[in-house]
Write a structure and sequence with these properties.
The protein is built from 9 helices and 8 strands. By secondary structure, it is of the alpha+beta class. A hairpin with a 2-residue loop joins strand 2 and strand 3. This is AbiEi antitoxin C-terminal domain-containing protein.
Length: 199
């Protein structure tokens, strides 16, 4: 039926920008009533990921990336969370960061919680954030500084700083300035990393 195809096409276009994920609100906007949504979940056309978050079944058969799951957290936060800290280092493939937890930075007034993520509260500026497919992530510069401020293993900061400099992503001066803005712990971690690079 043409109407159903058009409805599905609209939702598919939205989901395609989000690695196949979408929210109940996005499905409603595309033309799916809550009853129709329930039907598609029951038929396993849509996979229920979380309360009000789904994914087209077809995406389970497609090659996935290491960052697919981060789209889910962007949708969970209603696009207010930014992937950050050591998780952002891993997204940028900087150094040896391989965090066991997902780190997200959310605005100070953000109220939602989930035991699967570590939330940091900060008001990020546009210069601190990059858009990836379906989610936002802090820039390499910010990710290094906030990881140092969070007191991750010094080896993680050292390797991230070394790689960021060798790839030309930032400069020593910009790294130090970004660290200074986040406090003494960040500054100390970045200074140690810079000494390690020149040693």
């Amino acid at each position: 039926m043409l109407g159903d195809d058009t409805t599905r096409d609209r939702l598919w276009r939205t989901a395609a920008r989000q690695r196949g994920y979408f929210t109940a609100a996005q499905a409603l906007k595309a033309g799916y009533s809550y009853q129709a949504q329930h039907f598609h979940v029951g038929r396993r056309n849509w996979i229920r990921i979380d309360r009000g978050i789904y994914r087209f079944r077809e995406y389970l058969d497609l090659p996935s990336t290491d960052t697919d799951h981060l789209v889910r957290w962007s949708l969970w936060s209603r696009d207010r969370a930014v992937v950050s800290h050591a998780t952002a280092l891993a997204v940028h493939d900087l150094g040896i960061a391989n965090p066991a937890e997902i780190h997200l930075t959310v605005p100070p007034g953000f109220r939602a919680r989930d035991s699967a993520v570590v939330l940091h509260r900060a008001a990020l500026g546009a210069a601190d954030v990059e858009q990836h497919e379906g989610f936002k992530v802090t820039t390499p510069l910010r990710a290094i500084a906030e990881s140092a401020a969070d007191a991750v293993d010094q080896d993680v900061v050292d390797s991230a700083v070394s790689e960021a400099l060798s790839r030309g992503l930032t400069t020593r001066r910009r790294l130090l300035r970004a660290a200074q803005e986040l406090g003494a712990r960040a500054e100390l971690g970045v200074e140690r990393a810079l000494r390690e690079v020149t040693a």
